[in-house]
Amino acid sequence: MTGLNSPYGLVFDPEGTLYVADFNNDRVVKLPMRGGRRTLPVAGLHTPAGLAVPPPGRDAY
Hints:
This protein is mostly beta strands. It is built from no helices and four strands.
């Protein structure tokens, strides 16, 4: 169970990892293709509703 509450934004990165904007939990959750779950350390989120992943070979920052 992932404990997601109102997952609004879903996006896959080039490696197949799923990222979820968990709207009512004010967080982003990383769900790797091979299992496991991790909440990403993103400060100041309030009801995130969308995500974007940069193209392969590009950094997010």
